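Fresh eyes needed here. Kindly weigh in on this sequence plus structure tokens:
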Amino acid sequence: MKINSKDPGNSSVDYRIASFGLGTAGCRILSQLERNGVKLGKHHYASCTQSDFDLVSGKNRITIKLPVGGKISQRSVRGAAHAHRDQIDRALEGVDTLFLIAGLGGKVGSALAPMIAEMARERNIRCFSVVVMPFKFEKNKHFTAGVALKWIRSLSDGIIIVDNDEILERFPQAPLQESFELIDKTLALAVSRLFGLADNAQGASLDMDKLLQVVATDGYSVLGTSGPRSDTPLSAVKSAVKSISKTADPREIKKAIIFMAGNAKLSASDLTSAIGTVESFIGPRLSSVDLGYSTGGMVSSALILGSGFPVTKFDKYDPLDSILAGREIDFYPESSIEIDLGRLENIE
């Protein structure tokens, strides 16, 4: 098994990156990343709700105006978004790598992420998607989220899945709205550590080249994080592996990234133990581990990104996928576009 540890900012490729935060969750997470000092190229935001831009700096915002009245659906959001394709095109000019961040529990993220991923593919832009799945109690959102996940996986060069339930369990007594904000901040901090050191901490950041190679491994990537107050670095790693195990089988992991955070007492022995623990839990399919760490925190925490999962529990959200098994008549997600029939000429 190959083990790598990279110096901060080490990358052999000059990437031309753009990123999109889509819908409420996507806008909140990407804007939090920006406040954490992590810059994924030029940040762009798209939503149907103006309040989603409250924490967004800059002018790269796309407000998708939906028709007044009627039921809001993924089809209607995609249809309304067609009027903004020129804006999206301009955002993709000169880009070779695109990051999409979206929650699939609502209408906007699940509608726009497949659409923009396809636009990127048409332009030979590598697209990596970070998707946040709905809570298990949101039964009415599971099917549409499962369908959107299938589209995004087929159109992305790599996809990272985040399970909302795993993070929610850490804040069982918090009011619901506060829980959503805590989840977004937790996710932003986790993604910050994948793309660079957060909070100006001392340590070793992860190399962008290796990160993209890990995420581009066939199958899904799953992000696992430890609880907020792990006693030791070792217990933090075990907690992060357990987090992944609730979404997919850790024994399926082919490549992994570990990020350890702790105080100034974080030692080389702690890092070695973390790698050994991950290897013992995951098993023989694991071919390489990349390691990053920071020493600017007060408590121990761990993040593990495992890739190569052929399936996750979220595949069951779209039961038609297993029934049809690739025999779909029309694979493309449909759009609903409002047309003023009064302006059409009569057709004889």
Notes: The longest helix spans residues 176-195. The chain has eleven helices and twelve strands.
